[in-house]
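Private note to self, pasted from the team thread so I don't lose it. Backbone tokens:
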């Protein structure tokens, strides 16, 4: 009778050697587990992109700087060439397009079913958000390079000819206008977005003035010059930001100012000009200068906390998201910094730069913006493990 032979798997190993190898492998695993894990890295992952132009453009460059208007189901963006377009929020499929000569450059104010904006064809519009149908238009006889503000049934905006308009939002009838003369031949392309607070409207103008007006009549309550005649670009194009009894605003070639809201008295100033408004959080100010710097400042005094250089002269308004600062460089990249320290964490290059202020979903970290080439981008902001375990190792 033939005796059964034991099963054999490869060469025969001495028992002692086998146990030694097993113990060595266990030691390596334990040693690896004892090391501190590497910190996660922040990533900007592209989820989608498409051109927002009706047809390709090969002429001179234009400034496409509108922040996307994002509703529950639409993304609405404008360009400085041919108008306004709405896309499906998830897949960027076109829903409607409104052709306007010279496009929509400055941005739009979304209020319920309505969208209010000034266009470069010399008109101010109210359109239906869901369909793009024009509800009314108002002639401004100038380019619409300033974003509107809605408050209590009235829309306020500064046109390219230095005229502040107050319109009835329901029918577009003019309630009052305020005009300033500008004698300088040099001006930055842009206009201040008005801020409405209490009974006053605050707006900047290209002659370097900040003006407080009665919201109902347009009567001037006070005005202050923030640039001085020695400046080349005196424009106050940044939106005034009201915080309690203070206003924070900058002139392009001048300074950042903290002003007394009741009379315009200067409380402090920082010799760094700016084009876009500041962002406030807690006791800090986050500020993109017109000299290529991103600054964090003490709100009470204007003292510097940290600074980071930007690749281009102008950056978008800083956006805050869960301890992060997001800013676009007009001729560079979209960049993310740690808010407390200013440490650079992530960047994304869309091509020629980021001229449109990004929109950030406060719940998910999804980012949408238009680039200098009039491309709409969708990104996901999130943390990533720099060295995940390989699949075969995770199976142990």
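Design output:
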């Amino acid at each position: 009778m033939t005796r059964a032979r034991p099963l054999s798997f490869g060469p025969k190993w001495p028992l002692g050697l086998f146990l030694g190898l097993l113990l060595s492998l266990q030691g390596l695993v334990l040693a690896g587990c004892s090391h501190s894990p590497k910190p996660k890295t922040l990533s900007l992952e592209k989820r989608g992109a498409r051109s927002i132009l009706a047809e390709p453009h090969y002429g001179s460059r234009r400034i496409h700087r509108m922040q996307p208007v994002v509703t529950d189901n639409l993304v609405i963006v404008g360009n400085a060439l041919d108008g306004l377009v709405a896309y499906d929020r998830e897949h960027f499929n076109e829903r409607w397009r409104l052709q306007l000569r010279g496009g929509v450059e400055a941005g739009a104010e979304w209020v319920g079913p309505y969208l209010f904006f000034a266009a470069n064809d010399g008109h101010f519009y109210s359109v239906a958000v869901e369909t793009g149908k024009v509800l009314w238009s108002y002639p401004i006889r100038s380019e619409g390079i300033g974003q509107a503000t809605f408050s209590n049934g009235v829309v306020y905006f500064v046109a390219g000819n230095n005229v502040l308009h107050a319109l009835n939002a329901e029918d577009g009838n003019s309630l009052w206008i305020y005009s300033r003369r500008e004698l300088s031949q040099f001006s930055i392309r842009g206009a201040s977005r008005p801020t409405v607070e209490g009974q006053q409207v605050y707006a900047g103008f290209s002659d370097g003035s900040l003006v407080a007006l009665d919201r109902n009549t347009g009567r001037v309550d006070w005005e202050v010059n923030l640039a001085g005649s020695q400046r080349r670009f005196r424009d106050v194009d940044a939106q005034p930001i009201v915080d309690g009894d203070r206003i924070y605003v900058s002139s392009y070639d001048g300074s950042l100012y903290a002003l007394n809201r009741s009379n315009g008295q200067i409380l402090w100033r920082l010799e760094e000009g700016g084009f876009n408004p500041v962002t406030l959080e807690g006791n800090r100010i986050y500020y993109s200068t017109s000299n290529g710097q991103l600054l964090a400042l003490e709100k009470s005094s204007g003292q510097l906390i940290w600074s980071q250089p930007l690749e281009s002269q102008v950056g978008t308004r800083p956006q805050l998201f869960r301890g992060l600062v997001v800013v676009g460089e007009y001729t560079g990249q979209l960049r993310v910094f740690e808010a407390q320290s200013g440490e650079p964490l992530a960047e994304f290059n869309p091509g020629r730069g980021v001229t449109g202020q990004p929109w950030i979903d406060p719940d998910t970290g999804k980012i949408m913006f238009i680039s200098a080439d009039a491309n709409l981008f969708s990104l996901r902001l999130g943390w990533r493990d720099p060295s995940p375990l390989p699949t075969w190792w995770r199976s142990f």
